[in-house]
Specification:
Blueprint lengths: L3 E4 L3 H13 L4 E3 L4 E4 L4 H9 L5 E4 L2 H8 L13 E3 L3 H9 L7 E2 L10 H8 L8 E7 L5 H8 L3 E11 L5 H12 L4 E5 L2 H10 L9 E4 L2 H10 L3 E4 L4 H12 L1
Parallel strand pairs: 1-2, 1-9, 4-5, 4-7, 5-6, 7-8, 9-10, 10-11
Antiparallel strand pairs: 3-8
Helix pairs in contact: 3-4, 8-9
């Protein structure tokens, strides 16, 4: 029996990955382990849109940051000329393009970057002069500040706005049943992690689970380290592209 890949991204991204993996011939199901919710007070986002034309750069930390920010885009307004949009990876870039940001105004890691993350994005951004530049960081209510710190040290004035809230997952009946099936038959499932937070939530959902025979695929060394700390017996790593993930899964299956 082929292993079922459990995609643990937030629901919208999980759905997209399931579709892509299925098209590639990989059995996959969505089991979102991170909840994404709107912020309670949208006014800071509206103010960020008003200030956007004066910014040199708007940095979006994830597809969810872009989606929730654009949900409050003023009617009839497009992306301002001369304002760059920074993306840490292909998923965020694709979302920004779909939402109307011109491709020539998007800055992202090189296609052959070892990882798609803040460090890879900084390699591109560090080529520019940031002294006196105004930068907006669009993120969740919590998250890494490393890239914002690099921009600030380079002389930029950095403002942050929370576009969404991360939350523990609320599993519906189908997802709860899928979780129980994965716990009962670990050799038939492969956990696909793109966030250490998803692993934290999984541990909370199944605190007594024995992960010794479970297998995981992680898209970053930090995430892989968290999966190993949970006790997962086999942890594989792949770049967060469909091609790399599919190749890794096929290698595991063989």
């Amino acid at each position: 029996m082929a292993m079922q890949v459990l995609v643990t991204r937030p629901v919208l991204q999980a759905r997209e990955w399931v579709e892509r993996l299925t098209l590639a011939g990989v059995p996959a199901q969505s089991l979102p382990l991170i909840g994404i919710e709107a912020v309670l007070d949208p006014e800071p986002l509206r103010e960020a849109w008003r200030q956007l034309p004066s910014m040199r750069l708007a940095l979006f930390v994830s597809p969810n940051a872009a989606t929730h920010f654009f949900a409050l885009q003023p009617a009839g307004g497009g992306w301002p000329d001369g304002v760059l949009a920074a993306s840490p990876g292909p998923g965020t870039t694709e979302t920004l393009r779909r939402l109307g940001v011109p491709t020539n105004q998007i800055v992202e890691p090189a296609p052959d970057a070892p990882q798609f993350d803040s460090e890879a994005l900084w390699v591109q951004l560090a080529r520019e002069a940031w002294q006196g530049a105004a930068v907006l960081v669009v993120r969740g209510t919590s998250g890494r500040d490393w890239l914002a710190d690099q921009l600030r040290e380079a002389g930029a004035t950095v403002e942050r706005v929370a576009a969404y809230r991360r939350a523990a997952p609320r599993l519906d009946a189908a997802c709860a049943a899928l979780l129980q099936a994965a716990l009962a038959r670990p050799r038939e499932h492969l956990w696909f992690f793109s966030s250490s937070e998803a692993i934290d939530h999984l541990e909370g959902l199944a605190p007594q689970a024995d992960w010794a025979v479970a297998a995981a695929l992680a898209t970053h060394p930090r995430i892989a380290a968290r999966a190993r700390a949970l006790g997962m017996g086999a942890v594989h790593e792949a770049r967060p592209t469909v091609e790399a993930v599919v190749a890794c899964i096929q290698s595991i299956a063989s």
